[in-house]
Amino acid sequence: MGRPMTFDADVVVDQAVGIFWRQGFAATTPQNLVDELGIGKGSLYNTFKSKHHLFTLALRHYSRQRMTELAASLEGPGPLKPRLRDALATLAGVGEHQLGCLTVNAVAEVGMTDEAVAEIATELFDRMQEIFRSAIERGQGTGEIAATRTPAAAAGALLAAAIGTAVLAKAGTTPAHLGHILDAALDI
Predict the structure, then answer these.
(1) Distance between CA atoms of 76 and 41, rounded to whole angstroms?
(2) Is 144 exposed, middle or buried (0-12, 13-18, 19+ CB in 10 A)?
């Protein structure tokens, strides 16, 4: 019989998000995780099965957290366009950090060779596009956003801008330049 767990698995998953976000999947070793999370190697494997399983848990946690924040930031009264711009900047990390988006980074790193990562990314991007579509629909209803495109098409364009800006942020593009890109995306 093993010893009882002396840590909160949810807290460890939350902390793992930061580690994988900074280092990526391949560069993060089990020893890095043990050292930074403050848990034993046996606990890591007994609780999370593998580094990859912890990575997918961290990606799902990150995705849920980001989409909850995105939906909350776009709801409520007041002008929508500034909130859309702030949301895009936050999703890409403009001005906060130059880590980009954890999920975009994961897709770039492991591509379509990792089915679990591809599934998580697809779910995130679909949810993100749906949140954008709903916000654009509301903005078109109030007249703040021109109805020159369908809400779905405009949402797809914002999704592409968010993903592209996240990649550019990760590549070290200056926040000022990224801001110009976001402004142009919203003008379209």
Answers:
(1) 46
(2) middle
Q: What is the pTM of this model?
A: 0.89
Phi and psi at 93, nearest 5°, equal 85, 15
The answer for residues whose C-beta is within 8 angstroms of residue 186's C-beta and 6 or more apart is 81, 84, 85, 88
Domain ranges across the chain: 9-187
pLDDT beyond 50 at 53: yes
**105-137 per-residue burial string, b: 16 or more CB within 10 A, e: under 16:** bbbeebeeebeebeebbebbbebbbebbbebbb
Give the number of other Cβ atoms within 10 Å of residue 93's Cβ: 20
Homologous superfamily (CATH) of 9-187 is Tetracycline Repressor, domain 2 (1.10.357.10)
pLDDT tens digit sequence for 65-121: 999 999 999 997 789 999 999 999 888 877 666 788 899 999 999 977 999 999 999
Q: Could you give the CA distance from residue 81 to residue 187 in angstroms, rounded to a whole number? A: 9
